[in-house]
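Audit log entry. Action: structure prediction of a protein-small molecule complex. Ligand: 2-acetamido-2-deoxy-beta-D-glucopyranose. The ligand was supplied as SMILES and no pocket hint was given, so placement is left entirely to the predictor. Protonation state taken as written. Sequence taken verbatim from the request; no trimming, no tag removal. Recorded inputs:
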Amino acid sequence: MGPRTSTLPRWRALLSLLGLVCVLAAPALAYAELSDTTLQNIPSGADVLNPHTGALLSPILVPRVPGTPGSTAVQHHIADFFARELPLWRLEWQNSTSRTPATGTTDIPFMNLIFTRDPPWTKGNGDVGRLALVAHYDSLYKPEGFIGAMDSAAPCAILMQVARGIDAALTKKWEAMVESDDAGLGLEDDEKDTDSIYGARSLAEKWEAEMYPAQSTYETPLDAINLFVLLDLLGAVDPHVPSYFPTTHWAYKGMANIETRMRKLGLLATKPKNSFLPESHKAAESFRSGGYVGDDHVPFMVRGVPILHVIPTPFPPAWHTMDDDADHLDLASIDDWSKIVTAFAAEWLELDEFMSHVMKQEIRSRSEL
Ligand SMILES: *[C@@H]1O[C@H](CO)[C@@H](O)[C@H](O)[C@H]1NC(C)=O
């Protein structure tokens, strides 16, 4: 089976975004394509996602093992970015400790950073379904000095860029809903950042245990996640991302369709021989049970959360080597992923008519912070 059944090491950390969808219609039915104009308005992140100079990505390209100063610095980088650029997103920490085989009896801290943006009229009361966009932010403890540029610094920066890309449209949409008195529909958006799969497990347990008030549409925060999109090992050239699960193949097709349309419109920088997401036409019988990559989504998947795992198979050659660094990232691929995922989130959250904004501000460089 090769890498399809391999298990990624458990010494990892997550960054995720959650977005809520309308609860009155099943997402599959509500799913309407973005217009060409909206696709054309999806911002490029080529400046901020540059591995060497980009204000979002370059500060993450340091060793960031849980419990070390590098990890703390990256947490602050992410938290400061939201506080400064996206102040309407609320940050919640979910901290836990775990012992790992590599560290024996020492308790290692795992911290999930959860950024939530709720519509003004909701209080996270269990009546809104959520789209979770997730990546891990910590890095392997060995080889010493390991950077983990695609694993998963680049996916984290992509998610930060996605949050920037949909933020203004969320505001406009909710303002319009309040004005038209549709607010009772309950739309919400949320974002999360967590630690390794230790962190992921701890978070899944917490969300499973936390009960919403009786009468809510959803029983628990876990139950409210309509789709959990995990980005991993992205940022190298020529990714081949299969569709892993029949239950979320429709969402895979939605993302693949966005890629195809953006390529036709000339909006993507890469010109690969094959699409990043080439399995839209995968037949139902071609999904093998158990044929998935073990990763941070597993604690959520075993609790019944639908998963869209955006991870290439085969893994890029630099995987788990010292070569997984800034020099082995491909800016065009990273930026294309940021556009594809931004469009996917906008489509899911039904932001089409509110996406016509142009990204205004340059993100201030790190030296100005
Ligand atoms: C979790 O840890 C972070 C970093 O040390 C700290 O800032 C935060 O207040 C902690 N949160 C909780 C809920 O303990």
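Audit: result stored. Helices lie at 27-30, 36-41, 69-85, 149-179, 197-209, 249-264, 298-301, 331-348. Residues 1-29, 184-196, 364-369 have pLDDT under 50 and may be disordered.
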